[in-house]
Amino acid sequence: MSESPIMDILAKYPPEPEAVISVLQDIQEKFRYLPRDVLTEVSRELNVPLSRVLSLATFYKAFSLKPKGRNAFHVCLGTACHVRGAQLVLEKLERELGLASGETSADLNYSLDAVRCVGCCGLAPVVMVGEEVHGKITQTKVPGLLKKYQK
Ligand code: FES
After folding, report:
1. d(CA 101, CA 120)
2. pLDDT of 61-119, one tens digit each?
3. Which atom of ligand 1 is nearest to the CA of 79?
4. What is the pTM of this model?
């Protein structure tokens, strides 16, 4: 039998239902999404119904059931960002990356998502790439921003 890809994660927590969120967070960090077969394993190992694991996985925005890019672009469309032109920034990123919001490139280099307020409204419009915050982004700044994340 092959070794579980999440053995290291499961070993960190007691095998109890209370550990499920922490385990999912670690899996999201490791794989950048929550693979379906891994969720089945979480369900079995922590004794939580798979339906419950799936509902948690879809409820929290931090979790994704689809693979995300190594460079995960999140465009804030919260109110402060929206009134300062965030929608135009999102559209520019869609054109430049050739991705619609919610999509990941086939080579897994990029993903693009729209999100609600990321908590730095003073910097609106805000684009996050992974954990990095980029403020006051306009359409004209998008190519320069992308350049930073091109290999
Ligand atoms: S609305 Fe965009 S950071 Fe708050």
Report:
1. 21
2. 889 998 899 999 999 999 999 999 999 999 999 999 999 999 999 999 999 999 999 99
3. 1
4. 0.80
**Smallest Cα–Cα separation from 53: which of 14, 32, 27?**
27
Domains and their CATH numbers in the chain = 7-59 (no CATH), 71-148 (3.40.30.10)
Q: What are phi and psi of 13, to 5 degrees?
A: -125, 155
Label residue 1 by pLDDT band (50, 70, 90).
low
Q: How far is the CA of 112 from the centre of ligand 1 (A)?
A: 17
* Contact partners, residue 113, CB within 8 Å, separation at least 6: 72, 73, 74, 75, 101, 102
CA 16 – CA 39 distance, rounded (Å): 15
Judging by DSSP bridges, how do beta strands 127-129 and 71-76 pair with one another? antiparallel
**Cα of 123 from ligand 1 centre, angstroms:** 8
